[in-house]
Specification:
Elements lengths: L31 E8 L2 E9 L8 H7 L6 E3 L10 H6 L1 E13 L7 E21 L6 E10 L12 E2 L1 E2 L4 H5 L5 H7 L9 E5 L35
Parallel strand pairs: 2-6, 3-6
Antiparallel strand pairs: 1-2, 1-4, 4-5, 5-6, 5-8, 5-9, 6-7
């Protein structure tokens, strides 16, 4: 996920420590990302960790189940899934981004990485929760991105894509009064302006990778030169 959100939060309440926002090019699961949540009648920006932990997902549960927090949630079953239904009804959020990465190929193989550029700020539909930490006063905010079937652009690369919401839909997504039917109508494959897409290098697989190089178009290495002729020389 990549996001440059400077200068687009004029109508959002921002805490003083968030005023020096800068672009990110490689936001990875478990890392904090900027999101917008409803706070009464206002919208509030804040950070949450990418990886949704329902209250029952304790450390002991994850060890036994051999799994980590939920990175994504399927939009088609949002209101039925045990892990997500409460948040889907009560704790929706917007994850700001201007692009996202998808791998092409089977898991366990060396996969190509592709970047999809939205051409401007959009928001991924998300759900949020706050997992209680050992100290009663401390709760860690965390989120998952909702996914849907891919549109025609993403389908050749990956079988799912994030639910992208244009700015005109943000208020309805955050409103506690929006019906489930209306929310389901929003969670559809992106049909707005076409996404720009290109293959990038596997630099983003490195945990500390950051900067514009992450989204630079991939340049294959030069072909190896043919070995010199084995025929001997007279001189």
């Amino acid at each position: 996920m990549a996001a440059d959100v400077s200068g687009i939060l004029e109508d959002v309440v921002i805490a003083p420590d968030l005023l020096s926002l800068s672009g990110r090019y490689n936001i990875r699961p478990s890392e904090p990302a900027l999101l917008i949540r409803a706070n009464g009648s206002a919208r509030q920006a804040g950070y949450a960790h990418w990886g949704f932990r329902p209250p029952w997902m304790t450390d002991a549960y994850m060890r036994e189940a051999k799994r980590g927090p939920f990175i994504n949630a399927r939009s088609e079953t949002l209101f039925e899934a045990r892990a997500f239904s409460d948040a889907g009804r009560q704790e929706r959020c917007l994850i700001l981004a201007d692009g996202f990465y998808e791998p092409k190929g089977e898991k366990g193989t060396k996969r190509e990485q592709h970047y999809f550029d939205a051409g401007g700020l959009v928001a991924f539909a998300g759900i949020e929760t706050a997992f209680p930490e050992p100290t009663p006063d401390h709760r860690t905010a965390n989120f998952a991105i909702l996914t849907c079937m891919p549109n025609a652009q993403v389908e050749p690369v990956h079988g799912r894509m994030p639910v992208i919401l244009p700015q005109a839909s943000w208020a309805d997504w955050l409103s506690p009064n929006t019906s489930a039917d209306a929310l389901n109508a929003m969670m559809q494959p992106w049909s707005g302006a076409p996404l720009d897409t290109w293959q990038v290098s596997t630099l983003i697989n490195q945990r500390d990778a950051e900067g514009p190089g992450c989204i630079a178009p991939y340049k294959p290495p030069p072909a190896a030169e043919a070995p010199a002729s084995a025929q001997g020389s007279l001189f």
